[in-house]
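Problem statement: downstream parser choked on a complex file, so we are re-checking the raw output for the 2-acetamido-2-deoxy-beta-D-glucopyranose run. The parser issue turned out to be on our end (a line-ending mismatch), but while we're here, posting the original submission so the record is complete.
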Amino acid sequence: MVCLATPLLLSSAFTAVSAYIQYSTVTGYFLQDDNSTNATTFDYTATNFGLINQSYPTDPSNAASLTQWQRFALVIANLTKSAPSNVQFKLLFMGRHGEGWHNAAESYYGTPAWNCYWSLLDGNATATWSDAHLTNNGIAQALVANKFWLSRIQEQKIPTPQKYYVSPLYRCLSTANLTFSGLPLPPNEPFIPTVKALLRESISEHTCDRRSNKTYIHSQFPTYKFEPGFPETDQLWTGVTAETNSAQDARSKTLLDNIFSTDDSTYLSFTSHSGEIGSILRVLGHRTFSLNTGAVIPVLVKAQKVAGLSTISTQAWTPSPHCTVPPVTSVSTGTNGGCVCPNSAAPVTTTLPPFAVST
Ligand SMILES: *[C@@H]1O[C@H](CO)[C@@H](O)[C@H](O)[C@H]1NC(C)=O
Ligand SMILES: *[C@@H]1O[C@H](CO)[C@@H](O)[C@H](O)[C@H]1NC(C)=O
Ligand SMILES: *[C@@H]1O[C@H](CO)[C@@H](O)[C@H](O)[C@H]1NC(C)=O
Ligand SMILES: *[C@@H]1O[C@H](CO)[C@@H](O)[C@H](O)[C@H]1NC(C)=O
Ligand SMILES: *[C@@H]1O[C@H](CO)[C@@H](O)[C@H](O)[C@H]1NC(C)=O
Ligand SMILES: *[C@@H]1O[C@H](CO)[C@@H](O)[C@H](O)[C@H]1NC(C)=O
Ligand SMILES: *[C@@H]1O[C@H](CO)[C@@H](O)[C@H](O)[C@H]1NC(C)=O
């Protein structure tokens, strides 16, 4: 167990006191907050992003001529205006990337064989999934999101994101590009996303979780900005151990603390991953809600700065067992995580795999 204290310094006239940001999800506005909504079958495009049809105490007298999203924007404006100075509200639109070649490969080989062998390779004879690109299906999913945003802007006058943040992995860089291209966005809030190192997927030994270098990302997405200090090469992926859930949640909280302390806009877009959005939802106290590839979830967040020190207990990263040759079975659980290698090859748990990439 490692204990990470994550203090923020609040300066005052006399002394510096430590404080931290406490997050919660404001429920009652979105179907996704409701326990009875099934994430597996939920379609954000069939439900106005999940915004529940209702009237609000803040509805103005001309409410009948306003859309649900316009009236919800008034709710948020009211919350923001009424909030004490240590509280802020933000609406996060979190989008999962469309299907990538690694997703296709996991379906093709089955999850156990994928986890214990294929995921550690850069690809097979016909597909590459190291920092995977989108499949045609994934591109189509991102275009569905694009078309849906356009319809929300035109029909609902939805507030569009004021700032865009994107994971450094190719599938997200690409999804964001397709999702927000060609939209009638406000000229002062254009789609110029910031690449955030910590918005990446859960860092496993899989090559799909290893990012490309900054030079390459810039060459592919020249209009994107990088957050200050974004390293040229991937400093986090090891290929030997995998980030634990608690370590990932500590990382997600660091990411949120950074964004909530530096960005005072209300509507934000995150383009990220299923595992990472799951972790952010845990930090936000949102119910579990697994996104399908290409899906988007809005979350109304209350962030409150409170005095004291927040301590997050994190488990050290651990190696995952794997085979050095294709596995013989596809059991999903059991010893070594269901990784059953041929007789000649016991599961490897600690040594660097022979196909690991140089640093
Ligand atoms: C939703 O489910 C969680 C966990 O099962 C439970 O703690 C919570 O009270 C439920 N919320 C509602 C509104 O039913
Ligand atoms: C959600 O829907 C899926 C697919 O129809 C189904 O298999 C699953 O049991 C449902 N989950 C719940 C909690 O109802
Ligand atoms: C709200 O009502 C409209 C039609 O008035 C419908 O199209 C939409 O799906 C409803 N949204 C939800 C979340 O039920
Ligand atoms: C927020 O809305 C409530 C009604 O729900 C109202 O009493 C209050 O004055 C509003 N606050 C602001 C700052 O508009
Ligand atoms: C390689 O993996 C992809 C899925 O990513 C699959 O569609 C393809 O058939 C595989 N190629 C071979 C030669 O097995
Ligand atoms: C998306 O990428 C294409 C190809 O690089 C580029 O021409 C276009 O400007 C990008 N769109 C956005 C919104 O970044
Ligand atoms: C950056 O990545 C690209 C694409 O993978 C590669 O061709 C290039 O050599 C890398 N640059 C450096 C400095 O490693």
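For whoever reads this later: The domain at 13-99+134-315 is CATH 3.40.50.1240 (Rossmann fold).
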